[in-house]
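stage 2 :: seqdesign
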């Protein structure tokens, strides 16, 4: 997203649950100097911190529901301020139209581009059930709810950005290395274009 006043640059990483957003963002950070902000990770940290919103967030995550935007946006803004960076890769946000509209209205920032990790439900389900990170939402019941929310609420946001020519779709069913090759090509092209201006 670009913000002319503060020159913050933000790209967005989207894709279904288990499509590999977090894995690829970690690679992008190492190669391209972004700060990675995972909305899900920030919400999980908020639960651990013992915040007054912790119980509500925990319940929403267990049910695969989307936490109210004001909570998530405050966490994102705080993390951005604390990072000292001006280049952010926001992972798993905006998750629905409310997230998108509220973020843009509060921050006046729009994404430069949106990476969309495209993967079948069958493969995503396999990956989530093998993740073994102790997440309360990595069980088959919650995974099915998360897939439904993804289709009903998150895909329309991808379509919105697509209509603005911002989506870069990546075949995320390939190996981690192959997916990263495709990601690298997108970022390299972006920097080459910027250098040519
Ligand atoms: N290309 C890949 N091939 C096989 N396994 C992968 C691939 N990418 C990621 N994984 C594995 O799949 C699991 C989910 O990946 P990751 O946590 O990056 O997904 P995510 O999109 O961030 O999911 P969530 O939305 O639930 O946070 C992890 O165990 C990860 O190691
Ligand atoms: N914008 C968001 C992002 C996430 N959540 C909640 O966290 C859960 C886990 O998110 P991951 O990106 O780590 O998979 C997600 O299912 C939501 O419950 C949210 O509310 N808003
Ligand atoms: Mg993740």
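stage 2 :: out
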């Amino acid at each position: 997203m670009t913000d002319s006043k503060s020159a913050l640059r933000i790209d967005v990483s989207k894709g279904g649950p288990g499509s590999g957003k977090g894995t690829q963002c970690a690679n992008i950070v190492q190669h391209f100097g972004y700060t990675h902000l995972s909305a899900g990770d920030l919400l999980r940290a908020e639960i651990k911190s013992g915040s007054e919103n912790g119980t509500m967030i925990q319940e929403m995550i267990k049910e695969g529901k989307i936490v109210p935007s004001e909570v998530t946006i405050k966490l994102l803004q705080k993390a951005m301020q604390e990072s000292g960076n001006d280049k952010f890769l926001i992972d798993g946000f905006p998750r629905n139209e409310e997230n998108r509209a509220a973020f843009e209205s509060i921050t006046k920032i729009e994404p430069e581009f949106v990476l969309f990790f495209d993967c079948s439900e069958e493969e995503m389900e396999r990956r989530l059930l093998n993740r073994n990170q102790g997440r309360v939402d990595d069980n088959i019941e919650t995974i099915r709810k998360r897939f439904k929310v993804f289709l009903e609420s998150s895909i329309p946001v991808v379509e919105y950005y697509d209509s603005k020519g911002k989506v870069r779709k990546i075949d995320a069913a390939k190996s981690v290395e192959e997916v990263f090759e495709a990601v690298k090509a997108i970022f390299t092209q972006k920097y080459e274009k910027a250098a040519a201006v």
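stage 3 :: structure notes
- DSSP finds eight helices and five strands in the chain.
- Residues 17 and 124 are 7 Å apart (CA to CA).
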